[in-house]
Amino acid sequence: MQIIENSTVYDAIIVGSGAGGGMSAKVLSEAGLKVAVVEAGPFFDPALPEHQTQLKWPYESPRRGKSTRFRPFGDFDAAYGGWDIEGEPYTQKDGTQFEWFRSRMLGGRTNHWGRISLRFGPKDFKHKDVDGHGDNWPISYDDVKPYYDKVDKMIGVFGTNEGLPNDPDGFFLPPPKPRLHELFYIKGARKSNIPVYPSRLSMLTKKINNDRGVCFYCGQCNRACQVYADFSAGTCLIFPAQKNGGQIDLFVNCMVREVTTDEEGRATGVSYINKEDRKEYKLKGKVVVLGASACSSARILLNSKSKQHPNGLGNSSDVVGRYLHDSTGADRAAFIPDLMNRKVSYNEDGVGGMHVYSPWWGDNSKLDFPRGYHIEVWGGMGMPSYGFGFNANEFNKFFGTKVGGYGDVLRSDAKKYYGAVVGMAGRGESIARRDNYCEIDPTTVDEFGIPVLRFHYKWSQFEINQAKHMQDTFEEILTNMGGEFMGEKPGKDTNYGLHNPGNIIHEVGTTRMGDDPKNSVTNKYQQLHDVDNVFIVDAGPFTSQADKNCTWTILALSMRASEYIVDQLKQQNI
Amino acid sequence: MDRRKSLKSIVLGSVAGGLAIHGCKPSGETEQLVESPKITYPGRVPLEEELIQELHDEQFLNPHEIATLTILCDLILPASEEFKAASDAEVVDFIEFMAKDVPAYQPDIRGGLMWLDHKCNTENSVEFKDATVEQQKAILDEIAYYDPEVPGNERPFEVNFFSLIRNLTMTGFYTSKIGIEEIGYKGNMPNVWDGVPDDVLEQHGVAYEEEWLAKCVDQSKRGVIAEWDEKGNLIT
């Protein structure tokens, strides 16, 4: 069979519709370019009743919201995909374990995330100067600041200007008031001299424009908001761009195989498999913008082999796929007796995430790990879902009363302990290493015949030490709160509860930016060193992660790269 | 321009699943989004719907097991003047579904129900479901309590069986409409969060700081479009 070619020549073909691809689609289309967006999953719009899971009750799911293979964060989670996708495997190397989370749908993983929207700080771009580890970015905070400012105003993020040295101020919407358990957290953390601030999440606590609604505090951002009061790339970037008249052709359920190139080695477009008819198609474009996610974009490049690019597109450096790094993560929870016997007289759903958090406060020069972490906190009288009432009165053990039983005592125990658990999660920075990588597994293809990724990833002692510090900190704060711990403190045998890499879903660095083409994949405008009409707008170009979530920086950098594309096209440089 | 129509016309590459024209526009008015549709299974892709249908088409529990489980679940959460029973929330139907969704539950549920009958026959010469409530409770009293310091996999089978049924009964009940009403959860509906009520703060011995509250959203101005000065101070 012949590959079917579309005769349209797009100004730009964007692969992926998440934060990076969505932002690029908005900037490029609003500049008047004709754009194709190619997304591997189906169309999704939470304003459509048949796509909505928001405001559903647990009994509207036969499994009461329990997680499934397709929705590991629960049956009502908006994001379809997960760590284990039928027909789309990935493999591991040398006994290492990297878990790769993908969302197959318009908007990608922006339909899932916690909307924690943290700018990187000045130190985060030049961390090698501070501690000698990793590499500096070729750009600084000052290069990115104007774009962060624009993203804040375009998309909306609540928070507060605190004048912190490495957690920059911005253009914030006002934050919501803390919930009850968060007031306990504030007290507990401060007792250990750990500062607490209003959190910074991209939800509209105040109107930002006439196209999007205002948060109505259902606490369900992970189910996607039908009034677009939280950020996802479909609702806040692609749809508004279309509404503004941007020429965006959406190709959904289309899985990009490779970037096609001409005799000179320049990109001519992409080839993709249409998942509906399982045929291969080609699209032509003047510029190809990869925003498929750090690992997916690396995979596409590595699979785009040609005479001119025998090692994969943009991979003359042999760096594509290398320096893969995820955030570190560890967690702990405790039962807080002072939060027992709560009045259920009010609705404390709040926004879909924590109202307060602790950005990194420590001095790494005095610690046995070089990079920091921030603390997220959870708790409260949430909507019952699968798992509610399991071991309903196990906390009786803290009072020396019987555990288990049957009858009405279970009811009173369930009510006594409702909303009395507080959990903490540390999310930290790991060091980017050349030896942590993804590569093409020559032995395996997915169901579309596309060679899959094979991962090799090991934490170092730095990350393990950091996790230990997290556990010690959690224990101290929860103890300050009067907590009784749930489960044993994770020890050395489990790397102090340090999650497997990939688990925190902040993987970055696979197509790192740099000034030297020998040890980086893109230049500081996220343009391949090897091919001037291919750009990468996901987290692949990150030279390093920070002790922050990566989405806000993906958005700012995608905007910056996309404006550069427009400028270069105008100047006819590409 | 009707945004839906425009989207429908430009989704290419394949038939977008479930994409249809709807007049539902994003809106800043919370009043317009109070009602969610009645029970429909929401937001699924075809593969998920197929699997759910397959699970519904299967039958795991036989009539005797259903009858026994119904009695067992109602001993766990009995009806009274004040409360509804597990059976009022159709907990056994939920357990039937979960046994198929999590096949690892199946041997414990099936074997545990057999154990109950064996035990009851041995002691009372009658199957569990036909025993008197006193006889049933006498059996449960031996298996309903556990030592939380003993790891789960070291506890006797019958204790773990009962814990599993108790857990599924509790979850099945408290995720049902009547269970949610009983537990008193007040959320899952549009509202305006404006902090913890004073009586709750007082009960738990905490208070808001003025300095912190001053940073928080003024809910009377939430509908006013945000504007900032050049330093990032909100001015509206």
**Cα end-to-end separation of chain A:** 33 Å
Summed up, the domain count of chain B is: 2
- Helix-strand topology string of chain B: HEHHHHHHHHH
Estimate the helix proportion of chain A, in percent. 10-25%
Task: Give me the secondary-structure category of chain A.
Answer: alpha/beta
Q: State the distance separating the first and last CA atoms of chain B.
A: 30 Å
Low-confidence stretches of chain A: none
- Largest protein interface, residues of each chain: A-B, 125 and 109 residues
Radius of gyration of chain B: 26 Å
The main β sheet of chain B shows up as: none
Give the quaternary arrangement of the chains: heterodimer
Question: How many whole angstroms does the radius of gyration of chain A measure?
Answer: 24 Å
- Name the helicity range of chain B: 40-55%
The outline of chain A comes out as globular
- CATH 4th-level superfamily of the domain at 1-158 and 225-325 and 508-574 in chain A: FAD/NAD(P)-binding domain
Instruction: Report the average pLDDT across residues of chain A.
Output: 97
Overview of the molecule:
Chain B: It comes from Flagellimonas zhangzhouensis. Chain B: Pfam families: Gluconate_2-dh3 (PF13618). Chain B: InterPro entries: Gluconate_2DH_su3 (IPR027056). The complex is a heterodimer of chains A (574) and B (236). Chain A is α/β, with parallel strands linked by helices. Chain A has helices at residues 19-30, 122-125, 127-131, 141-155, 180-191, 233-243, 294-303, 408-417, 461-480, 551-570, and strands at residues 4-15, 34-38, 81-82, 91-92, 102-103, 197-198, 247-251, 254-261, 267-274, 279-290, 328-335, 356-357, 373-379, 421-428, 437-445, 451-456, 484-485, 534-536. In chain A, helix 1 runs parallel beside helix 6 and helix 4 crosses helix 10 (551-570). In chain B, 47% of the residues lie in helices and 1% in strands. By secondary structure, chain B is an all-alpha fold. At the A-B interface, helix 5, helix 6, strand 7 and helix 8 of A face helix 1, strand 1, helix 2, helix 4 and helix 7 of B.
